[in-house]
Write a structure and sequence with these properties.
Distance between the termini: 43 Å
Number of domains: 1
Structural class: mainly beta
CATH superfamily: monomeric porin ompg
Strand content: over 45%
CATH architecture: Beta Barrel
Order of helices and strands: HHHEEEEEEEEEEEEEE
CATH class: Mainly Beta
Number of strands: 14
Helix content: 10-25%
Largest sheet: 14 strands, antiparallel
Radius of gyration: 20 Å
Number of helices: 3
Shape: globular
């Protein structure tokens, strides 16, 4: 379910200044997303939207005291020729744009992800909260949870006329991710995710378990490097299940915010109806990273 976007934290300060307008654009995205969600979610969910989006709005406050709590703001904008998900029923299968953000402290972060078809229709929205339970030189354990919305286009009959409507499906999910660091740039870990579908006409119980590794800094030259993250995973969707392989390769330049990535998803064996034998995509990614100095609260 995760999208394999890597935040390149080495983007240079000069590029941050040149492209600072994008930060303002991302800030403006939150009201737009709130409006978009309101079009597809019942009125009683307004409080939920406020709870989900208000912390992010706080993160971008220009008040002088804001840096007391927020010490990083990172994000990425990806344009891909094919929207792919490790959950087969969530795969879009056509060009898409994805907005990733991360804002928080060293321990706790809010990481929303907004996916749209390139034509503008919403694909899925995820509102991740992630917590670093344990972090040492060799071992890390991360916890996460999120509500999510997956959008589907359906034909309905209204007053005798067939019309296209967009329907939102609601999900709740949690994750556990222990990782062992073999070296500074090489890691091996497990990832488990459980997702619960709210509506009765969707998959109610999804279990996702993967064995993954990461090679974070494969040097190609003084300026260019690659990141390779292969994984093998088991997926169970209610009574159906399957095995898959999913490697991602990222090509990047040091101190440069743009990168290119490609993901390949291959079915090994499955009984899940929506699975496809093989899928791959290519994505162009713009990443940015900001760090803020934590200030001590007044009076302490």
């Amino acid at each position: 379910m995760q999208n394999n976007v890597w935040f390149i934290t080495e983007a240079g300060k000069e590029w941050d200044r040149k492209l600072s307008f994008l930060t303002k654009y991302v800030r403006a995205l939150f009201p737009m997303v709130s409006s978009s969600l309101a079009s597809y979610i019942p009125a009683q969910s307004t409080l939920l939207l406020f709870v989900l989006l208000f912390p992010a709005q706080l993160a971008f406050s220009q008040e002088a005291d804001s840096t007391r709590f927020i010490n990083h703001f990172a994000g990425a904008v990806s344009v891909t020729n094919k929207g792919i998900s490790t959950i087969p029923s969530f795969t879009l299968g056509k060009p898409a744009v994805i907005f990733d953000m991360s804002v928080g402290t060293r321990k706790l972060s809010f990481e929303p992800q907004f996916r749209f078809a390139l034509e503008g229709k919403p694909w899925s929205f995820l509102f991740w909260w992630r917590y670093k339970l344990l972090s040492t030189d060799k071992f890390q354990v991360n916890l996460g949870a999120h509500p999510a919305l997956n959008f589907r286009t359906e034909q309905v009959l209204l007053n005798g006329t067939s019309k296209e409507v967009i329907v939102a499906r609601r999900y709740l999910a949690g994750e556990l991710a222990p990782t062992y660091l073999l070296t500074k740039d090489i890691s091996l870990g497990l990832y488990y995710l459980y997702s619960r579908g709210i509506e009765k006409d969707v998959v109610r119980n999804t279990h996702f378990l993967s064995l993954r590794s990461s090679f974070a800094n494969i040097r190609l030259s003084e300026q260019y490097f690659m990141r390779f993250t292969p994984q093998v995973y088991y997926l169970k969707a209610d009574m159906q299940h399957g095995f898959y392989v999913n490697p991602t390769l990222v090509l990047a330049k040091r101190n440069f915010p743009f990168s290119v990535s490609s993901t390949f998803n291959k079915t090994i064996k499955t009984s899940i109806p929506a699975s496809r034998n093989a899928l791959w995509n290519v994505s162009l990614i713009y990443s940015f990273n900001k760090e803020y100095i934590q200030r001590q609260p007044v009076g302490l």
